[in-house]
Amino acid sequence: MMRLFGTRESLLEALAMDWAETQLQLPRQPGKQRAGRRRYFKTSRRNR
């Protein structure tokens, strides 16, 4: 890892930025995704 980033500070900065990006992402809502899939399959069967 140190070979990629050069210094310890740059490695820590990259890790902190990566952590911050994951913290900013909105949590997934699996219930809505499942409902969307169900709707898709129901309409696709009806259209056959």
Describe the structure.
- The chain has one domain (2-46).
- The chain contains 3 helices and no strands.
- It has helices at residues 2-5, 8-24, 30-46.
- The longest helix has 17 residues, at 8-24.
- The protein is elongated and about 35 Å long.
What composes the largest sheet?
A: none
Q: Roughly what percent helix?
A: over 70%
What general outline do the C-alpha atoms trace? elongated
Proportion of residues in β-strands: under 5%
The secondary-structure class comes to mainly alpha
What is the average of the pLDDT values? 70
Radius of gyration: 21 Å
Determine the N-to-C terminus distance. Answer: 54 Å
Could you give a short description of this structure?
This protein has 48 residues and is an all-alpha fold. It contains 3 helices and no strands.
Topology diagram in text:
Elements: H1 2-5, H2 8-24, H3 30-46
Q: Key features?
A:
single chain, 48 residues, mainly alpha, 3 helices, elongated
